[in-house]
Input
Amino acid sequence: MSFNSIQFALFLPIVFLLYWLVFDKLIEKSRYQLQMQNAFVVLASYVFYGWWNKHFLVLIFFTSFSSWLSGLLIENAKTSKASKTWMVVNVVVNISILAFFKYYNFFITEFCQAFHFQSNKALLKVILPAGISFYTFQAVSYSVDVYRKKTEATRDILAFFAFISFFPQLVAGPIERATNLLPQFLRKREFDQQQATDGMRQFLWGLFKKTVVADNCALHVSSVFYWSSRTVIPGSDLLLAAVLFSFQIYADFSGYSDMAIGTSKLFGVKLMQNFKFPYFSRDMAEFWRRWHISLNSWFRDYVYIPLGGSRVKKPIVVRNIFVVFLLSAMWHGAGLNYILWGIYHALLLVLLFLLGRNRRNLDVVSSGRLLPNLKETGQMIGTFMLVTFGWIAFRSDNLHFFFNYVSGMAQRGTLRATYRFFIQSDMWPINLFICIMLAVEWLQRDKEFGLDIQFIKYGWIRWAVYLAVSVMIIMVGGLPEPFVYFQF
Output
């Protein structure tokens, strides 16, 4: 079930009404109210996920139960060695399940090609369960945090199952921590009209980014990437498709995060911010502090810092950066194109680190000013171009495709893409939609999301904005496309 589907449009109000009217008001005096409310969250989440494929519900159940049990075993272990053993067992088991579904066919294929074996008999028809990378990392972090004594193991199995399977963020994050999300299922939640209204605003903005920007970009991007391996396409079209994919993947993924966070607020739950307007970054280090924050902070806390972080000798720091980005690449997918994408970004971060510029630009760009200065504009454009080049590898089917695509861009006249983007009539709608998104988010760059406009004094102005956004979603939304990060 997808946020931009008719099914979800029916599912959400039903769950919302049952959650607050039946499992809150009608059983308000029951001593089991919280447990029943959490049980309903788990049931609704399993229906939400099972709508896609009910057979994989057993994986979520196993991950939830094994991680809940491991937390108790870790906390109650009589020795630190036993505690560490239970932690390692749960991490290895869950990561092994993830690795099997994501990498089995990839490694079998690569091995057979390397030694000239036939791989057909060894390959399995493995379907990657939606969201497995997200909820696995969430479960693993719980075991590690209990072992590190950053959080206490919970005996409330319903609250823990709700923590792992909470449907707004189950399929594509944000990847939550037990220290933030689990306590919210261990205490009574009260309906907050202001929070719910804020959630609806954020959901609306996320839906706009997904349907109006991402889905319209996807139509052009998919066509160019498909035909580029089958016929000769002008370099300007290849460059334009790469730029549009940059906007597609941002609007798609940050749009999902906005909808997930907004939906959570309707149920009295606060999720972490996952994007902080990364395309306004002035260097690559700032970009990675603002892009997919929940995943990058996960790798920081559970990989980078345990390896020594940046408080060790420079060669070790360089190693740590490469380890993080290689693991991030593998998390995203089984393919050498992802490895190339990870190495590319690691090199850019290492360069900034060696130059001592990786901790600059910690503030909001052009803070207190309407427009950026010339230097900031150049920095943002340069960073965007570096990111866009990396996205070509990310979007490619394999390394051969990537190198052919890049060589195809290296033609005379490639920069005509600029002309096409701003002038040619068939690009006007997409151009307009992207400009609206960027303009709104630029004005709101110090806020949590684009439609965070409760500061506007006059209610009629706010409602006019909501109406305009809604009309655009209905009238010019593109053909529904799967969320990009559902494949991870």
The chain has a mean pLDDT of 90. The CA atoms of residues 216 and 424 lie 16 Å apart. The chain is about 65% helix and 0% strand. Residues 6-189 form one domain.
